[in-house]
Design brief:
By secondary structure, the protein is of the alpha/beta class. It starts with a strand and ends in an 8-residue tail after the last helix. 39% of the residues lie in helices and 17% in strands. It has 2 domains: 197 residues, NAD(P)-binding Rossmann-like Domain (Rossmann fold, 3-Layer(aba) Sandwich); 101 residues, UDP-galactose 4-epimerase, domain 1 (Alpha-Beta Complex), CATH 3.90.25. The strands form 4 sheets. A 7-stranded parallel β-sheet has the order 3-2-1-4-5-6-11, with helices on both faces. Helix 4 packs parallel to helix 5. Strand 1, helix 1 and strand 2 form a beta-alpha-beta unit.
C-alpha cells in the first residue's frame, strides 16, 4: 500500500515509517517540522501543517494514497493545561482538516495515534478498553474528542479507523540511529538520560509515598518498536476489511519510577543524583494496560518492552546523539 504518515518526522512516526517500509509499503511523511526532525525520516517528506486545510487537501491530492497513519499532534499533558487552545486547534482542528481531505480524496483507512490519557484516573487495573473515559488534561480530551468523531465518519463516509491508545512510549531503534529527541525533555526516561549524559545535575522523582512497593508511581512502558508494529498490523487489518476499533497498546506490566531510574544508572554506568519532589496533582499511583484485546484482534506481541531492552536501546540512541539530531 501507499501510506501517508502525518507527524512522520516525530519520535513514534519515524519508527513506524521504518516498520512500514520494511513490510513492503510505500511511505510518504507529512510534517510541519515544528517539533519533528527531518533527519529522522528516510522517505519523501511533504512539509505541511494540518491546521492549514488547503495545504492538507493538497497533500492528499498530490498522490494516490491507500491509507493514513495519523500521529501529528502536540503531546505534553502539562503544556496542554497551560495552553488548551493550542491542543484543541492542533490536535482536534488539524484532525478535522485531515478527515475532510481523506473524504474528499476517497482515502478510507486511518490508524489514529490516541493515548491512555483518555482514561484519566483509571477506574480499574489493568485498564481495559471498556474503562470509563474521563480525561484530566486538554491533551487527553483532544484525543478523546477525535475518538468520538471517528465512528461518525465511518457511518457517513465509510472511513474506517483504528485508534491505538498508547501507554508510555519509550526506547529507540535497535541500531541506535533514530530515537527520542524531545525538546525539552519532560518525561522520566528522556530526562534521566540527560542526567546520565551530564546535561542535567539531577533527576526528580515526584513523590515516594504512594501505595506501591517502593513508594513511587508505576507505569506501563511500551517499546517504540512494538508501537510501530501495532500501527502496521492495524493498517493491514483495516485493509483486509476490518471495521473501526479502539485498542490499548501497552506491555501489560508496570515499572516504578525508581526501577526505571535505577536501570538507567546501571545501563549507563552513571550514578547521577536523584531528588524526591512533591507529588504532582492528578498522578495516579499505578497504571498499566490490559492488552488482551490487541493480542486477540491483531496478533500483536510486545517483543521489546522489557525494561532492560527499553533502557539499553534508549541509552544507545542518547549516548550516540548527545545533542539529538543537531537540528535545533
Amino acid at each position: 500500500m501507499k501510506i501517508l504518515v502525518t507527524g512522520g518526522a516525530g519520535y513514534i512516526g519515524s519508527h513506524t515509517i521504518r516498520e512500514l517500509a520494511e513490510r513492503g509499503h510505500e511511505v510518504v511523511a507529512l510534517d510541519n517540522l515544528e517539533r519533528g526532525h527531518a533527519a529522522s525520516t528516510q522517505c519523501p517528506l511533504i512539509r505541511a501543517d494540518l491546521r492549514d486545510p488547503a495545504a492538507t487537501r493538497q497533500a492528499l491530492e498530490s498522490q494516490s494514497f491507500d491509507g493514513v497513519v495519523h500521529f501529528a499532534a502536540f503531546a505534553a499533558a502539562g503544556e496542554s493545561v497551560v495552553h488548551p487552545e493550542m491542543y484543541f486547534e492542533n490536535n482536534v482542528g488539524g484532525t478535522i482538516n485531515l478527515l475532510g481531505a481523506m473524504v474528499a480524496t476517497g482515502v478510507k483507512l486511518l490508524v489514529f495515534s490516541s493515548s491512555c490519557g483518555v482514561y484519566g484516573q483509571p477506574s480499574q487495573l489493568p485498564v481495559t478498553e471498556d474503562c470509563e473515559r474521563r480525561p484530566e488534561s486538554p491533551y487527553g480530551e483532544s484525543k478523546h474528542l477525535v475518538e468520538r468523531m471517528l465512528p461518525w465518519y465511518e457511518r457517513a463516509h465509510g472511513l474506517r479507523a483504528i485508534a491505538l491508545r498508547y501507554f508510555n512510549a519509550a526506547g529507540a531503534s535497535l541500531d541506535g540511529t533514530i530515537g527520542d529527541d524531545a525538546r525539552p525533555a519532560t518525561r522520566l526516561i528522556p530526562s534521566a538520560m540527560k542526567a546520565a549524559l551530564g546535561q542535567r545535575d539531577a533527576i526528580t522523582i515526584f513523590g515516594d509515598d504512594y501505595p506501591t512497593p517502593d513508594g513511587t508511581c508505576i507505569r506501563d512502558y511500551v517499546h517504540v518498536l512494538d508501537l510501530a508494529s501495532a500501527h502496521a498490523l492495524a493498517l493491514e487489518h483495516l485493509a483486509d476489511g476490518a471495521p473501526g476499533d479502539f485498542l490499548n497498546v501497552g506491555a501489560g506490566v508496570g515499572y516504578s519510577n525508581r526501577q526505571v531510574v535505577e536501570m538507567i544508572r546501571r545501563v549507563s554506568g552513571v550514578d547521577f543524583p536523584i531528588r524526591i519532589g512533591l507529588r504532582r496533582p492528578g498522578d495516579p499511583a499505578e497504571v498499566y494496560a490490559d492488552n488482551s484485546k490487541i493480542r486477540r484482534v491483531l496478533g500483536w506481541e510486545p517483543k521489546h518492552s522489557d525494561l532492560e531492552t527499553i533502557i539499553r536501546t534508549d541509552w544507545g540512541w542518547h549516548s550516540r546523539h548527545p545533542d539529538g539530531y543537531g537540528d535545533r
